[in-house]
Amino acid sequence: MMSGVFKEHIGSDELFGRIKEDLALCITMEITHRCNYKCVHCYGDFERTERDIGYEQLTGMIDQFSEHGTLDVSLTGGEPLARPDFCDLYVYTRKKGIFVSVLT
Fold first, then answer.
1. What are the Cα distances from residue 34, in Å, to 2, 11, 52?
2. If phi over 0 gives left and psi between -120 and 50 gives alpha, with beta otherwise, what is residue 46?
3. What's the predicted TM-score (pTM) here?
4. Span 59-67, mean pLDDT?
5. DSSP code string of 22-89
6. Which residues 6+ apart lie within 8 Å of 12 measured at CB?
7. Could you give the 3-state DSSP secondary structure of residue 104?
């Protein structure tokens, strides 16, 4: 059985009603520098030791995206699934009515 977060369907009237002039329809968020692989085709330099942006900062950005009518957020990294709070971030974004793509 699917969670209620995944059942949402947006009609075209509601969808286009959310669009504003200062809109970025699609956003890509690099949510981590961590990666547990070293794929030969990957462009990333994931040996860096910088800390990931915090959950509160990310959700604050998602709130702003939602307020401005963003329709799709792609979560990427490094390996986005390496974040311990990934599932919380995914569900938070969906509950804001934003479609989520995961680039892993």
1. 29, 37, 8
2. alpha
3. 0.74
4. 94
5. T--SEEEEE--S--S---TT----TT--PPPPPHHHHHHHHHHHHHTT--EEEEESS-GGGSTTHHHH
6. none
7. coil
Looking at the predicted structure, is the pLDDT value of residue 74 above 90?
yes
Residue 66 and residue 16: Cα distance in Å, rounded?
Answer: 14
Position 79, amino acid: E
How many Cβ atoms from other residues are within 10 Å of residue 94's Cβ? 17
Long-range contacts of 13-16 (CB under 8 A, 24+ apart): 15/71
| pLDDT beyond 70 at 64 | yes
The CA angle 77-36-79, to the nearest 5 degrees, is 20
